[in-house]
Design a protein that fits this description.
By secondary structure, this protein is an alpha/beta fold. The protein has one domain: TIM Barrel. About 35% of the residues lie in helices and about 10% in strands. Helix 9 links the parallel strand 7 and strand 8. The longest helix is centred in the middle third of the chain and has 13 residues.
């Protein structure tokens, strides 16, 4: 029997350890992240390995991630990379399951995988089958501060909608780094059933005076918006500040627990009722291979 959850603080869905190739980032070590989470009132974090997002082969990066977080079980939760156009990607997914990962990360912009690429569809189906969320990073930095060597564009709404619309998919999709415009372009292009499987890390959404965050809370709802720190790339106080700065009427109606977080999304990924995948039985499909 699973023990009851006694710590109801949110779990951060977007944090990394390790260096960043385009500028120096402060304290990317895992022990510092643990202290940051405690300071910000977060129970834990889905942790990725930042250098691996820019490497062709994710395996060494995942190996380093598993080794780095093993001292903090239940607090630093590995979210390894699974690159579905790479040899033995199902082995990467199997390793994630065996390591107790709640999610895996994909970087389609860095890999050149557009909205119609079948590998991303295979990954989404496989994550749904394995009970893992699929975490997509739209961007790492604002266009105005990117290094001239960082020429990769943002993940498009078309790519996100294509993943959410897959017939028969059970994949719970987490979108990190999207502003209001991309969130609305994605959300309102989906059916109600598809919308229920997509969550948006709101760390990049503007608060006052534009009040984009308040608008999203009123329109798409707090349950679709997820807590994040974005350590070590952005200010970790952003999520808390956005909630604290909601207009009084909205703040009363949406307490902290109304928002999504790593715990609620992982639970949703694991409790989806079995459905027959649209790809079950197709020759060569790797969806079942992770079992």
């Amino acid at each position: 029997m699973t023990p009851p959850v006694t710590d109801r603080r949110p779990i951060d869905v977007t944090a990394w350890i390790g260096g960043y190739p385009f500028r120096e980032v402060p304290h990317p070590e895992p022990d510092i992240l643990v202290r940051v989470l405690e300071r910000e009132g977060l129970a834990g974090a889905w942790v990725g390995h930042l250098p691996g997002a820019f490497h062709r082969d994710p395996v060494p990066s995942n190996r380093a991630l598993y080794a780095a977080v093993e001292r903090w079980p239940g607090v630093l939760l590995p979210a390894p990379i699974v690159r579905p156009d790479w040899p033995d990607w199902t082995g990467m997914l199997r390793d994630a399951v065996n390591a107790g990962a709640p999610a895996v990360r994909a970087y389609p912009a860095q890999w050149g995988l557009g909205p119609a690429h079948p590998a991303m569809a295979d990954l989404a189906f496989a994550c749904g089958e394995a009970g893992l969320a699929l975490h997509i990073t739209v961007r790492f930095e604002d266009l105005r501060q990117r290094h001239t060597m960082d020429t990769v564009g943002d993940v498009s709404a078309a790519t996100l909608r294509a993943l959410a619309r897959l017939p028969g998919s059970r994949c719970q999709l987490v979108v990190a780094g999207a502003a209001r415009e991309l969130i609305e372009e994605t959300h309102w292009g989906l059916t109600e059933v598809e919308q229920e499987r997509v969550y948006y890390d709101f760390g990049w959404v503007w608060g006052p005076p534009e009040d984009h965050f308040a608008h999203l809370v009123r329109t798409i709802g707090a349950r679709r918006l997820a807590f994040s720190s974005w350590w070590p790339l952005r200010l970790t106080q952003q999520s808390r500040a956005l909630i604290d700065l909601l207009p009084d009427a909205d703040r009363v109606d949406v307490p902290d627990h109304a928002f999504a977080d790593g715990r609620s999304i992982a639970a949703a990924a694991q409790r989806v009722q079995p459905l027959k995948s649209a790809r079950d039985g197709e020759a060569g499909t790797p969806v079942r291979a992770v079992r």
